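User: Hi! I have a protein structure encoded as tokens and I'd like to know what sequence might fold into it. I'm fairly new to this, so please keep things simple.
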């Protein structure tokens, strides 16, 4: 493996270590021992859940290609996953508010384990089923766990500011350190030990099983709307009313869709972008490097959120602008450096530049997750939190499906350019959110009024 990979990884590791070890009291929030125990339990479970997801990341595209499928076939498999998340995942995820968030988290484990098992089959239909199951699981991963955490945190009477501590630590571990270890371990299983690209999926299933056992033994159940008479349609209607009635919630949904849509497109494109001529690149090691960048970003986010004078709404517009520039690099590098036409070999100079840009983008992702979680905890009503969060994922999944469906219609550099435009739009919307939040800073959100408005609309429907 080339020295370049070790230099990038080592440099990022050194910066991340310095960032963590140099933290002072200004960078930390004082908490209680009871909260620390609660935080550590959640972070352990979240890390296992994310490990089950990250173990698969470096080898999803590669496994499908090894089964003989081309980029178009693989794109349709990815579309099935995002489409499933949009259709079935929205319904299943929304049921968490009514049937219980703990139960939804367990459903995630079971669904994703079944998805991992399907990877043993080279049959396209079986792999398609696995993507559908994976899409449902993804919706639960990014809604049920966060909803359970926020509700349980408030139920136990912890300081609302301490939520940012849990968010940043969970992202630092689950989306950073665990992702790095998962990428290296996946590389060890698939390449070094020669077990092949299916082995990481088997390891992921085992980790998900361990996490599910901890949830069953140590988590309590909590719900969103306590009303037993409210059906799924009423939940959707209530979520729609909350989004339509509050500009901040609508802006959060649009920003999340634009950023995460670009992020998931990046997940699909980074492998072919760094090896356009089938260059021999260490997928697992590069994945670990990208996740190290994400961990560095979450460390930066924890410092930013610890300062009460610095608002999340302000610095996120800068993060989105930087993200937009990094995904322009493939287009810029191809413009200034002629693409290589030599098949095989090592990574090219332009791809080295792109990899550095991708590392910066991953650092922005590391800042995005805890920061967005904090904004959602502030502005989304508790009674329909999971439902609204899954509503946010509908335009996200539509966006990604459109991109992946047309993956063969445009060069990869153009696809990255489109993502860059969307990220710039997210930065503009974040600026608008900051202005609106400042305007309503002294006006607390009246969720009771929204519920009464929803009830009135229900009564009108009945009368008609």
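Assistant: Happy to help. Inverse folding works backwards from shape to sequence: for each of the 464 positions I chose a residue that suits the local structure. Here it is:
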């Amino acid at each position: 493996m080339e020295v370049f990979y070790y230099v990038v990884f080592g440099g990022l590791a050194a910066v991340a270590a310095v960032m963590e070890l140099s933290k002072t009291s200004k960078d930390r929030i004082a908490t209680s021992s009871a909260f620390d125990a609660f935080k550590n339990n959640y972070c352990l479970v979240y890390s296992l859940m994310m490990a089950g997801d990250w173990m698969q990341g470096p080898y999803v595209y590669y496994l499908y290609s090894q089964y003989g499928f081309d980029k178009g076939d693989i794109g349709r498999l990815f579309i099935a996953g995002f489409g499933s998340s949009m259709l079935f995942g929205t319904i299943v995820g929304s049921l968490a508010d009514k049937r219980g968030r703990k139960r939804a988290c367990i459903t995630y484990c079971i669904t994703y384990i079944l998805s991992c098992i399907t990877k043993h089959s080279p049959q396209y239909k079986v792999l398609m089923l696995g993507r559908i199951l994976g899409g449902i699981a993804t919706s639960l991963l990014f809604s049920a766990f966060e909803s359970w955490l926020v509700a349980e945190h408030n139920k136990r009477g912890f300081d609302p500011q301490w939520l940012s501590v849990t968010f940043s630590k969970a992202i630092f571990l689950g989306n950073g350190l665990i992702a790095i270890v998962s990428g290296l371990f996946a590389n060890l299983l698939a390449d070094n030990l020669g077990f092949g690209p299916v082995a990481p999926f088997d390891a992921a299933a085992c980790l998900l099983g361990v996490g599910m056992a901890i949830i069953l033994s140590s988590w309590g159940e909590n719900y969103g709307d306590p009303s037993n008479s409210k059906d799924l349609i009423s939940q959707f209607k209530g979520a729609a009313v909350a989004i339509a009635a509050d500009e901040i919630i609508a802006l959060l949904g649009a920003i999340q869709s634009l950023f995460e849509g670009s992020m998931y497109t990046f997940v699909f494109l980074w492998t072919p972008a760094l090896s356009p001529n089938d260059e021999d690149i260490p997928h697992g090691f590069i994945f670990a490097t990208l996740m190290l960048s994400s961990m560095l970003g979450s460390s930066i986010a924890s410092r930013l959120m610890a300062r009460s004078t610095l608002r999340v709404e302000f610095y996120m517009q800068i993060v989105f602008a930087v993200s937009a520039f990094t995904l322009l690099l493939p287009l810029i590098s191809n413009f200034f450096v002629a693409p290589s036409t030599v098949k095989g070999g090592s990574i090219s100079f332009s791809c080295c530049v792109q990899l550095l840009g991708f590392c910066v983008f991953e650092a922005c992702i590391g800042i995005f997750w805890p920061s967005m979680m904090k904004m959602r905890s502030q502005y989304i009503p508790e009674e329909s939190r999971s439902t609204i969060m899954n509503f946010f994922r509908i335009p996200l999944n539509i966006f990604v499906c459109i991109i992946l469906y047309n993956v063969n219609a445009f060069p990869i550099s153009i696809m990255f350019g489109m993502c860059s435009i969307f990220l710039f739009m997210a930065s503009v919307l974040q600026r608008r959110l900051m202005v609106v939040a400042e305007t309503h800073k002294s006006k607390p959100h009246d969720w009771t009024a929204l519920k009464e408005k929803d009830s009135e609309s229900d009564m009108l429907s009945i009368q008609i």
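A useful reference point when you look it over: Confidence is low (pLDDT under 50) at residues 444-451, 453-464. Feel free to ask if any position seems puzzling.
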